[in-house]
Amino acid sequence: MRIARLEAVPVSVPLHEPFTSALGVQATSDYGIVIAEADDGTIGLGEISLIWHGSGASLCDTVNGLLAPAVVGADPFGTTRFQETAARLLAFGRHSLAAVAAVETAMLDLAGKAAGRPVYDLLGGRARERVPLSMSLPIAPVEEVLDRARRLVGEGFTTLKVKGGGDHERLVEAVARLRAEFGDGLGIRVDLNMACRPAKEALRLVRRLEPYGVLSVEQPLPADDVDGMAELRAASGLPIMADESVWSAADAWRVLRAGAADIVNVYVPEAGGPVQARRIADMCAAAGAGVAVGSMPELGIGTAAAAHVAFSSPRLDQPSDVAGHLYHAGDVVRTGLEVRDGFLLPPTGPGLGVELDHDALAEYRTDTPGRGVRGAYRSEAADRRTARPAAPAP
């Protein structure tokens, strides 16, 4: 099998409801869908999922202009060679790792389909039967946070992540009321998305959260403030989780060497792909740090890629955010991912275990379709939906 063609298509898919964090308000996921076709007609899928440093959709040109020519004609099993080539082509910025991740994901999807095996088998095999999930609560009035929490707990989720920003009073009240209402049976995490500075401010907030048994405080300081994270961790009574500080394996090494995190949240888009994410997870485990798998949140393709990383990681010891598809009001794939009682069950089928929905892709894509390879992925129904009406007779 060889890759015959590959293209990235920009899409915009709405969330069920806008989600506010310290990074801003997200109402849609503006991502890129990578479609790779092998010489035997097999389709492999990847997703450029990115909500900061631009958007995933903004990286479609990077895939189409730089990465696609590098992989056409390549063996989809050759992800190591692809990563070496991508490192030379994209040395100008780590945000491009999300584009690299999408191409590597599509290659693994093809390889898994060729072998008749799920992607997690290509990553070393399945290490667990289910993955405990954590669902996120946005920055919102406390009553709204509680209403969302009640709904999620009613659906079987037992770990919730509370987003925080500049209003520490609101955050502490939300955490206190969650603990009072749900008791010790609910795992509560806090995610600050780099909202605190300096470390002393973060420490004051951590001290206020300590009485409520918070499982972890995620990325309280700016991504590059590794020394501040280490200082905070040394003084904190709660576990500190690194998120935005860790993209690549080199980032993970710096954070772990500095003692800046008890837990690392590993992302497929930020790592540069499922293989790279697994390597980072293994590094963290070897250093004695906890491991979770994070979410942008991704659509179905990206969620499936993260799921395969989570299921193949033997030292995954934290609830993970591998449920991005649940936040969205639509998708471009039909996915076999199943969530039961707050746990993600293993993906089924060869490759990623997802199937492209051509009509949905036509609905959510934001470019001008019909040029070159784009036309190969359009259905007749989609063409009818986007066709201009005939001009009235004069």
UniProtKB/TrEMBL annotation:
Q: Does the keyword Isomerase apply?
A: yes
The record's SUPFAM superfamilies line, in alphabetical order, gives: Enolase C-terminal domain-like (SSF51604), Enolase N-terminal domain-like (SSF54826)
Q: What Pfam families does the annotation carry? A: MR_MLE_C, MR_MLE_N
Q: Which UniProt keywords apply?
A: Isomerase, Metal-binding
**Tree of life domain:** Bacteria
Broad class of enzyme this protein falls into:
isomerase
Residues in coiled coil: none
Q: Which residues form the Mandelate racemase/muconate lactonizing enzyme C-terminal domain?
A: 142-239
Q: Which InterPro entries match?
A: DgoD-like (IPR034593), Enolase-like_C_sf (IPR036849), Enolase-like_N (IPR029017), Enolase_C-like (IPR029065), Mandelate_racemase_C (IPR013342), Mandelate_racemase_N_dom (IPR013341)
What SMART domains has UniProt attached to this entry?
MR_MLE
**Record region (Disordered):** 366-394
Q: Among its keywords, does the record have Metal-binding?
A: yes
User: What EC number is given for this enzyme?
Assistant: 5.5.1.1
UniProt GO molecular function = metal ion binding; muconate cycloisomerase activity
**What family does this belong to?**
Belongs to the mandelate racemase/muconate lactonizing enzyme family.
Q: What is this protein called?
A: Muconate cycloisomerase
Organism equals Thermocatellispora tengchongensis
Q: What is the lineage of its organism?
A: Bacteria, Bacillati, Actinomycetota, Actinomycetes, Streptosporangiales
